[in-house]
Amino acid sequence: MSEIEFEKELKAERTNIPGMLVFDLPVHGDSRGWFKENWQRAKQTDLGLPDLGPVQNNISFNAERGVTRGIHAEPWDKYISVATGSVFGAWVDLRPGKSFGEVYTCVIDPSKAIYVPRGVGNSFQALEDGTAYTYLVNAHWSAELKKTYTFVNLADPELGIEWPIPLSECELSEADKHHPMLKDAIPMAPRRT
Amino acid sequence: MSEIEFEKELKAERTNIPGMLVFDLPVHGDSRGWFKENWQRAKQTDLGLPDLGPVQNNISFNAERGVTRGIHAEPWDKYISVATGSVFGAWVDLRPGKSFGEVYTCVIDPSKAIYVPRGVGNSFQALEDGTAYTYLVNAHWSAELKKTYTFVNLADPELGIEWPIPLSECELSEADKHHPMLKDAIPMAPRRT
Ligand SMILES: Cc1cn([C@H]2C[C@H](O)[C@@H](COP(=O)(O)OP(=O)(O)O[C@H]3O[C@H](CO)[C@@H](O)[C@H](O)[C@H]3O)O2)c(=O)[nH]c1=O
Ligand SMILES: Cc1cn([C@H]2C[C@H](O)[C@@H](COP(=O)(O)OP(=O)(O)O[C@H]3O[C@H](CO)[C@@H](O)[C@H](O)[C@H]3O)O2)c(=O)[nH]c1=O
């Protein structure tokens, strides 16, 4: 397992994708392992995190280094982190407007968390065997809602994502192998009000 | 890693501790690993889970088999589960009243989750190296609130907890080695309304 940096200060940073935030999380190490406030509503809303109001906490377990999932833009906001292991994350703005197609990438280890607004495509590649990826969302998933997702292909050269492990060597779902290229993707419709 | 049972039906069960619930969670396995809705507000409130309104998600990483934490009753409700690995959990009712001192134990792997009401003492022992324990709470932690906790000693023979790994061989925090026995514990004051 890669080394986690302990006792960072809680911090929020903006990215080139409007509304997306990258957090440094303090992780407290001791002889037992470590402890973190993975999400703390009061401290993080003070730093600009929207008041999430989560209704679901999802966890995916990625058995082997190289497991890659995405790119999915879903009709809810996500607050993403890892419990164990680490991932290379890649996000693509799929909202209509002038930031459409904007890409951001970074490594997430347990001392990071990412706020991904609705309409931003989400994907990641596990960098370690046994990586547990955990996220909070503010709307309930259902299989029927899949038709409202916007998908983009992980391998689209236009995105220029430099996956640490070549996708040809990676475990992907059948669905994720066949998503359209960015030029054919339909921007996600704005939230109905 | 022990085998996880996939595709169980979502189910809630009561225990001998009033208000405490044990959930079976469906875990979906595939070639990438697995995916679970670790908490799903709508489906689980239908099964009797109080509407949590979480404001914090905490994760502790337990480096080695045998790490043991507890017994802590805190002034908030907890919804507990594991992302990787497994734990032996033990709970002690520390609310004033006729269930004071009631004990419940079970193993939590990724296909289980536990609702622990405010005033019920919480503890666990990691059964595997690299166990990630994750929970949601409905009030914000602060160091000052520690004086409102009720603590009980993990080793109190009156509790009769049969720890899978003898506590003398386990990694514990200094604080957790010195908590009072049940007979000296002060029941947790009811929530102020
Ligand atoms: C998203 C979701 C999925 N499922 C079920 C459907 C499938 O049986 C299984 C896996 O679903 P898939 O659609 O393959 O999920 P996956 O490709 O991993 O992608 C999801 O999970 C990823 C994390 O694993 C997220 O980064 C993606 O945004 C999300 O779309 O879990 C649920 O039961 N609830 C859910 O919320
Ligand atoms: C509970 C909590 C703790 N902390 C900090 C204080 C310490 O630097 C570090 C570890 O705290 P400790 O008081 O040793 O936590 P620990 O013995 O693991 O017990 C807590 O965490 C356990 C899970 O690890 C829970 O089962 C207990 O109910 C909870 O009290 O994390 C936070 O920053 N936020 C928190 O919410």
From TrEMBL, chains A, B:
Q: Which residues of the full protein are shown?
A: 1 to 193 of 499
Q: What does this protein do?
A: Catalyzes the reduction of dTDP-6-deoxy-L-lyxo-4-hexulose to yield dTDP-L-rhamnose.
Q: Where is the active site?
A: 72 (proton acceptor), 135 (proton donor)
Query: For the site Participates in a stacking interaction with the thymidine ring of dTDP-4-oxo-6-deoxyglucose, which positions are given?
Result: 141
GO MF terms, alphabetically ordered: dTDP-4-dehydrorhamnose 3,5-epimerase activity; dTDP-4-dehydrorhamnose reductase activity
| UniProt organism field | Senegalimassilia anaerobia
What is one cellular component GO term in this UniProt entry? cytosol
Give the protein name, as stated in the record: dTDP-4-dehydrorhamnose reductase
Biological process (GO) annotations held by this record are: dTDP-rhamnose biosynthetic process
